[in-house]
Write a structure and sequence with these properties.
Layout: H1 26-36, E1 44-47, H2 54-61, E2 66-71, H3 74-87, E3 92-96, H4 99-105, E4 111-116, H5 125-135, E5 136-146, H6 152-155, E6 160-168, E7 171-178
Parallel strand pairs: 1-2, 1-4, 2-3, 4-5
Antiparallel strand pairs: 5-7, 6-7
Amino acid sequence: MRIIGGQWKRTRLPVPHLPGLRPTPDRVRETLFNWLGQDLSGWRCLDAFAGTGALGLEAASRGAASVCMVEQDAALVARLQGLCQRLQASAVQVRRGDGVAQLRQCAPASLDLVFIDPPFDGDLFLPALQAAAAVLAPQGFIYLEAPTAWADAELAPLGLALQRHLRAGAVHAHLLRPVAKSHQI
C-alpha cells in the first residue's frame, strides 16, 4: 500500500496483519481524492478510525492544514506516530482513543473533511455519522466506508446527502455532504 498523491506520493505504508484491519485500497483512495480534488490546502480533517493512516496521510500529503488521526489500538498508534515522525508530518496529530468520542469533542462546523471507516463488524456507523454531521463545516465532506450502501433516506435524518458512491468488492465508498438548510419565515 502506498500514498497516491501529494508531497509523499509513492511512500509505502506498512500494513500489519491484524484481525479486522481493512486498509482502504489504493484504487478507492484514488477515486475519493479525484472526487475531492487533488489540493486540500487549508482543510481541517479528522480520521476517526485511522488504522494504517492511509486516508489521513493522503489528506496531509495533499496539503491539509490539520489532520487528526484517532486510533484505539496502541500498536497502530505507535506505528502511525513513527511514520508521521519519519515523514515530518507536522500537520498530523495522532491520538489514541475512541473516534466517535473525539468527534463529539470537536466544535460545530470545525471540520472540512471527516473520514469514517470503522470496523465492519461493529455498530459504529450511525453514532459516527451523527457526531460527524454535527461538526462538519457547511461546505464540508464526510467519507464513509461501509459493508452496505447508505441511501438518502437513511442519511436525510442526519442532515446529510449522498454526493458520490462507489462499490469496490465488499466495500461501499460514500462521499456525503451536509444538506443545505432553508430558512423559512
